[in-house]
Design a protein that fits this description.
Layout: E1 2-6, H1 17-20, E2 28-31, H2 44-56, E3 60-65, H3 71-75, H4 80-96, E4 101-105, E5 116-120, E6 126-130, H5 132-137, H6 140-149, H7 160-163, H8 166-173, H9 178-198, E7 202-206, H10 224-233, E8 239-244, H11 245-249, H12 256-263, E9 269-272, E10 275-277, E11 283-285, H13 297-306, E12 312-315, H14 333-356
Bound molecules: D-mannose and manganese (II) ion.
Family: Belongs to the mannonate dehydratase family.
EC number: 4.2.1.8
Catalytic activity: D-mannonate = 2-dehydro-3-deoxy-D-gluconate + H2O
Length: 357
């Protein structure tokens, strides 16, 4: 596995490249142009600036997360074609600077959703929390307003310019079914996958987080059957999945280990993290350690190892530890600890393999 670390960019992240350099075994940063609105073509000078900054610290920039998909594409509106053209141009430019994987998602309106970004744990750390009953009973506007008011930095997908549009978007999604979304996704893939393939890039869709419908909006990248269906929509090596253990694993019916065994060859990029699921459907993000959550992180890493996995891996969200002030889920400390746990498992599996041979 090739370890990478998400970095939001100079001036946009509390974590610096200087710090990331001190985490053992990190070879690259996972990046994006966070100030370019979804649907617009990424300017080459801005792309080069991030690549150069990362390269100065010895990091590669082979993984991008995310190039966001404009809502008109997900909605299948006639205006989608111009946004798809922009998307293709961005893919080509990223290919020119050596990008190998582009992570994106196809979730209507919202990216990942939680009800509390600073849930206090018993040990004094805080974590991202999802309270099922609260989400089911709150108006989305109210939740968004509450969350953005309490957070200095916005969550990805919760950018102010998108959220201003919230009620208009909800109107547009009325009557859009899961099957409509599948059709719109297929249309998009048929357009972009050949461009990605020519550019030496694998597109890697991120599963829906949480993997079920929220606020009545359709969500389709939610389970093993749907991942299989997704991969068959366009059966090309350039059409892949970002297998996110924490996103998929929030539904106890999902067997993440089975998904690794089935799909590893189509997973250029893995997000590995743990979640603790409660009986009432709530979940909280925990440390990466197997014993701390509901997911068998050891088993997941072992599955990748058994498959001879050579793709990129990043720790996903972390808790906020030791009073760190940071972007929710994206502090330095817990993600660094997560990396050491993942390497610990991986290195002992490697050693055991060598000793058996
Ligand atoms: C959360 C991330 C997601 C992911 C997007 C990919 O931290 O895993 O926001 O970046 O869904 O498009
Ligand atoms: Mn993820």
């Amino acid at each position: 596995m090739r370890m990478v670390f998400r970095w939001y960019g100079e001036g946009n992240d509390t974590v610096t490249l200087d710090q990331i350099r001190q985490i053992p075994g990190v070879e690259g940063v996972v990046w994006a142009l966070h100030d370019v609105p979804a649907g617009e073509e990424w300017p080459m000078d801005k792309i080069r600036a991030v690549v150069d900054a990362a390269n100065r610290y010895g990091f590669h920039t082979e993984v991008v997360e995310s190039v966001n998909v404009h809502e008109d594409i997900k909605l299948g509106l006639p205006t989608r074609d111009k946004y798809i053209e922009n998307y293709k141009r961005t893919i080509e430019k990223l290919g020119q600077v050596g990008v190998k994987v582009i992570c994106y998602n196809f979730m209507p309106v919202f990216d990942w959703v939680r009800t509390d970004l600073n849930r206090k744990n018993e040990d004094g750390s805080t974590a991202l929390f999802y309270e099922k009953a609260k989400l089911e009973n709150i108006d989305p506007m109210e939740l968004v307003e509450k969350i953005t008011r309490n957070s200095a930095l916005t969550m990805p997908g919760w950018e102010p310019e998108r959220l201003q549009d919230l009620s208009r978007l909800f109107e547009l999604y009325k009557g859009v079914t899961e099957e409509d979304l599948w059709r719109n996704l297929e249309y998009f893939l048929q357009e972009i996958i050949p461009v990605a393939q020519r550019s030496g890039i694998t597109m890697a869709i991120h599963p829906d987080d949480p993997p079920w419908s929220v606020f009545g909006l359709p969500r389709i990248i939610t389970n093993q059957d749907n991942l299989r269906r997704f991969l068959q929509l366009v059966d090309s090596p350039a059409n892949g999945v970002t297998l996110c253990s924490g996103a998929l694993g929030a539904n106890p019916d999902n067997d993440v280990i089975a998904m690794v065994y089935e799909f590893a060859d189509r997973v250029p990029f893995a997000h590995i993290r743990n979640v603790k699921i409660y009986e009432n459907g709530d979940f909280v993000e925990t440390s990466h350690r197997t014993q701390d959550g509901s997911l068998d992180i050891y088993g997941i890493v072992k599955a990748y190892h058994d498959k001879g996995y050579t793709g990129y891996v990043r720790p996903d969200h972390g808790r906020q530890l030791w009073g760190e002030q940071c972007r929710p889920g994206y502090g330095l400390y817990d993600r660094a600890l997560g990396i050491m746990y993942l390497w610990g498992i991986w290195d002992s599996l490697e050693r055991a393999k060598g000793e058996q041979a």
